[in-house]
């Protein structure tokens, strides 16, 4: 018996919201940026031991840090793109360069993905914070992230 469903291949689609739902929060981009920063911190602190087992453990841990850093840099970029493109940005604060700020943050996330550069990570977190401040200002709310230090940890 002919089954047409066997011949159709469904394509996977990803979206923040297909409605759109109107629920946005830059915190997901901030958490991703902080994760990238934390992975760079851990990568820079990781020391290789001597001997085959220590070298294997080093390579395993380093590769995991790199994978997480790259995944979260891409998550940060995705979340920023959604916020930039899907949110209407009413009452954008005067002096906030909407397109320039997002473009710079996206480029920073890409640089953080490509390198092990703590200064770039710090710039990325600051850029996401600036975007978050502008976002919340459009809603008449003053932005703060009182849990940032605790979330990032030591």
CATH C-level category: Mainly Alpha
Which second-level CATH architecture applies? Up-down Bundle
> How many domain modules?
1
State the CATH topology.
Four Helix Bundle (Hemerythrin (Met), subunit A)
Structural class by SSE content: mainly alpha
CATH superfamily: Nickel-containing superoxide dismutase
The 3D shape can be described as globular
In round numbers, the mean pLDDT is 91
Percentage of residues in strands: under 5%
* Approximate helicity band: 55-70%
Low-confidence segments, ≥5 residues, pLDDT <50?
none
Strand count:
0
Continuous helix count: 6
Gap between N and C termini, in Å? 63 Å
Radius of gyration: 20 Å
Biggest sheet, open or closed, and with what strands and sense?
none
**Could you give the order of the helices and strands?**
HHHHHH
């Amino acid at each position: 018996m002919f089954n047409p469903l066997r011949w159709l291949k469904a394509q996977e689609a990803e979206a923040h919201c297909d409605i759109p739902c109107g629920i946005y929060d830059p915190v997901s981009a901030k958490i991703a940026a902080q994760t990238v920063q934390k992975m760079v911190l851990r990568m820079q602190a990781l020391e290789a031991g001597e001997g085959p087992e220590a070298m294997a453990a080093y390579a395993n841990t380093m590769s995991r840090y790199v994978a997480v850093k790259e995944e979260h840099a891409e998550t940060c970029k995705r979340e920023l793109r959604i916020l930039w493109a899907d949110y209407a940005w009413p009452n954008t604060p005067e002096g906030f360069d909407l397109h320039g700020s997002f473009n710079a943050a996206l480029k920073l996330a890409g640089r953080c993905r490509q390198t092990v550069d703590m200064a770039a990570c710090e710039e990325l977190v600051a850029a996401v914070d600036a975007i978050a401040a502008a976002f919340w200002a459009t809603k008449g709310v003053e932005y703060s992230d009182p849990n940032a230090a605790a979330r990032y940890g030591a």
